[in-house]
UniProtKB/TrEMBL annotation:
UniProt-recorded name of the protein: Aldo/keto reductase
Residues involved in substrate binding: 112
Domain NADP-dependent oxidoreductase: 21-263
Family per record: Belongs to the aldo/keto reductase family.
One Pfam assignment: Aldo_ket_red
Native source organism of the sequence: Alteribacillus iranensis
Site feature Lowers pKa of active site Tyr, where: 79
PANTHER family per record: 2,5-DIKETO-D-GLUCONIC ACID REDUCTASE, NADP-DEPENDENT OXIDOREDUCTASE DOMAIN-CONTAINING PROTEIN
GO molecular function list: oxidoreductase activity, acting on the CH-OH group of donors, NAD or NADP as acceptor
Active site per UniProt: 54 (proton donor)
Amino acid sequence: METISSSVVTLTNGIEMPWIGLGVYQAEEGKEVETAVKTAIDAGYRSIDTATLYGNEEGVGKAIKDSGVSERELFITTKVWNDDHGFDNTLAAFEKSRRKLGVEQIDLYLIHWPVPGLYKETWRALEELYKEGKVRAIGVSNFMQHHLEDLIKDAEINPMVNQVEFHPRLYQKDLQQYCQNHHIQLEAWRPLGKGDLLNHEVVTRIADKHGKTPAQVLIRWCYENKVVTIPKSVTPERIRSNARIFDFSLDSEDMEAISSINENKRYGYHPDEFPY
């Protein structure tokens, strides 16, 4: 049986990325984020997702160092924030993140949001970092199809990952299809939605049917849709529980019922309406 530490997807450049990672958005720098990351690594997680904006890269780095697990066994993602767009700014922001994380190489570096008029120049910096071997994979976050089309038109290297808001209330099927067609791995942030999805009648019914938690059902739904997930939690038991999705599967009726929850509802900003 697959486990959280053995279950990986191969990106278009041959790099293996875990299907499930720990998201640390809003995890406080210091003890809170360090405990969350250590708990996750102990539970078998090998992927940790942070960002400059989160203000906790140092805590993530400390937890990695203290975990006793080699950097090479882990998959660390961070992101360049909107204020750091532009070629030189991005290179400088990357170095700052790398130092805070205390790693030689970052596994995945993402453009956090598609800042109008700047993301292409920022992408050139990511291509440079990739060519120099400072990152193992590069990608984007919160890019809609039109952003991807615009970027790819002039890019030397296509994004390997697109991390977007994705959950049953926002089942971005067209974007998912586009990414699949262009060998871009889709990754879900906020895969559990907010508390309301965990209490949704369809989700709780399917969870009861399989003897699983609603969170496990939602993560498994993403997994069966071939979408990478990074559920965020700082609660040790939830972190451990979220990893246990490999001992059951959803049938076509379950998948259809969960997908039908879709109402194109976002909990975060629409990328075209973000206050850049």
